[in-house]
């Protein structure tokens, strides 16, 4: 068994892994960026090391820096969590070359399943049903047009290395294909360094049903049943549940076998998920395999009693699974709501900020996986997740009532979250009927009705006297206690920073000071970076025309004209940073 494991991630999944390591008696090594100095995963670990600046490319994705920390810390293994380097075959190989265990599948399996085109071809050869489409990359828009005519519209354009909703665009009609092709390729290049795309038939409103598998190095592969993840926005999951509402025992056995066959086909090891689409008439198609632990693994843990993260670690250490397929039982019903820092009333606009107050729900059957406390910053540099709220009860109806109660107890101040959205979904007839709720999520009027008053912001100038300090020596984190008076004017017992003394100048804001648009001014609804500007000053635009794309919290957000007219002012350029309320354009 390992004695020390490095957790190459941040946020709630890093805390989750550290807890599993604690229970196994294994020391944990955390890594962090400059933006995450005070994060909970840093405080929870046995040791913590600074990687670099806030942007992920300079910290959590910096493989050379991670390898340096692994050597310095003496870690024998690395748990990648999800996202970042979790499905990076090159990283797994670098660890193998360094004699360090990757807590995940072999690089060959990541390669096989990491490319969606390769995975589709492999699954087709193994007899696993796939969504009709291409198994080869599509090189150009012209080629895509011909293939789309054969498949039939609507078609989905997907990045070959994509996942988590990134690099996924839909062309409902032929005139939308070029935009979908360009968008999917652009996101594929940006998030996965691979602009390759392929095409699939787009199923308008299928159930998104996935199966959890575990495979050890001794030939045992089991499935832990299915999860339904159909409630999504922008092809990213919001609510998950297990078991799936429309899956009976016969279908569970059938799709479970598909998942096991898929894992065996690539000599898989560790925890993985076979994602699929379930049509209304019961057809099940392989979609992709996620070669890592999923965000929503918690609902499967709740209904099976299997600690998936612990099993990952044990499998990586060479231990055989202590149970077989016949030992798996499913009990009750579990639901997970992702509590993201987003404003659903503004079409799920990212809402980064500092948490002023935080109180988690509790009681029977309630679990919260989180990496934050009061005072934690939800940075625009990373994904918007604040916490995951998981409940369990005897059946779906009881679990729904428990979730509604837990959401009511959950108190988060200082940032807007999806709690109002989740409350509304849990109270809807669509949820009660086991529907995908897509009609609600795509209804702008319904979403606007979820608006809540702006949260009160924490006072920037409030003085807090602290005697405990955290220092970094040669990039390693230490906690120390200093006995003496704190310096005046300090927020935490140290000298005031120059950044605090000299705030950055703000862009012109609309009179209300908040996101949105009023009069002639098109204001940014969020903080982020201008990724692309699609209009020019002096151009005529129609209401709803695409003006720019703002990248925030790992998502591209399309900003459209709020009225028809002429672009009188355009004070933005690609690469600019903007905050909520900044003027993007003036349309007269």
Relevant terms:
single chain, 588 residues, alpha+beta, Rossmann fold, D-amino Acid Aminotransferase, Chain A, domain 1, Dna Ligase, domain 1, 5 domains, 8-stranded antiparallel β-sheet, 5-stranded parallel β-sheet, 17 helices, 29% strand, metal ion binding, biotin carboxylase, Rudment_hybrid_motif, ATP binding, biotin carboxylase activity
Protein described:
This protein has 588 residues and is of the alpha+beta class. The protein has five domains: 4-103, Rossmann fold, CATH 3.40.50; 118-124 and 206-331, D-amino Acid Aminotransferase, Chain A, domain 1; 132-201, 2-Layer Sandwich (Dna Ligase, domain 1); 339-456, ATP-grasp fold, B domain (D-amino Acid Aminotransferase, Chain A, domain 1, 2-Layer Sandwich), CATH 3.30.470; 517-587, OB fold (Dihydrolipoamide Acetyltransferase, E2P) (Beta Barrel), CATH 2.40.50.100. It is 27% helix and 29% strand. The chain contains 17 helices and 33 strands. The strands form nine sheets. It has an eight-stranded antiparallel beta sheet. A hairpin with a 2-residue loop joins strand 6 and strand 7. Helix 4 (89-97) packs antiparallel against helix 5, helix 5 packs across helix 6 and helix 12 runs antiparallel to helix 13 (419-426).
